[in-house]
Amino acid sequence: MRDAPDEADEALGAGYWYPEADSATALLSALRRFRAADHDMRRRMSSDMDMNTTDLAALRHVIAHELREDPITPLRLAQLLDISGASTSKLLDRLTASGHLARAPHPRDRRSRIVVATDAGHAEVRERLSRMHRRMLEIAQDVPEPARRAAADFLLAMAEHLETEPPD
User: Fold this and answer.
1) Maximum C-alpha span of the chain
2) Global confidence as pTM
3) Which of 23, 28, 75, 156 has CA 20 to 30 A from 14's CA?
């Protein structure tokens, strides 16, 4: 049995699952490195903002729904985060107390409540993430125009696969 892959193997794409290094396995290796870096960035960012990664994900979902003018209810947020109603209530209590989120009446159904990001929540997200997102756009713009569609299709196909892969 082969030892755990070292950095040289990972850089080439060879390793535990794919013993042969080629451009396809190098692409998968790059994707694994990106996913690990993204995970680490979210952990660092949530720590810097004095919240856990689920709190940060909640803030991200609320802001994304606001930008689409699609109000998000606590129940929908619980579904997106895959957490219980009780956990969502505690999360909302924490993020309300910290000044990141607020509960408000639903604009179309006054019996219901929605979750909104506060001005302070928006400001903190912009302050901490603007530079990173600007650089990410620059990196994306460095990808040659003819290759962008193929790169996007690859990432979307991988996302769909991972979203629909049943557990063993």
Assistant:
1) 62
2) 0.73
3) 156
Give me the DSSP letters along 84-153. -HHHHHHHHHHHHHTTSEEEEE-SS-TTSEEEEE-HHHHHHHHHHHHHHHHHHHHHHHHS-HHHHHHHHH
**Which amino acid, 165?**
E
Predicted confidence (pLDDT) at residue 97 exceeds the cutoff of 70 = yes
Phi/psi at 164 (5° precision): -110, -5
> What gap in Å lies between CA 120 and CA 109, rounded to an integer?
26
Gap between the Cα atoms of 102 and 138, Å rounded: 34
Q: How far apart are CA 86 and CA 91, in angstroms?
A: 9
Q: Quick one: tokens of 114?
A: 């929605």
For the chain, the straight-line distance linking the first and the last C-alpha, in angstroms and rounded, comes to: 23
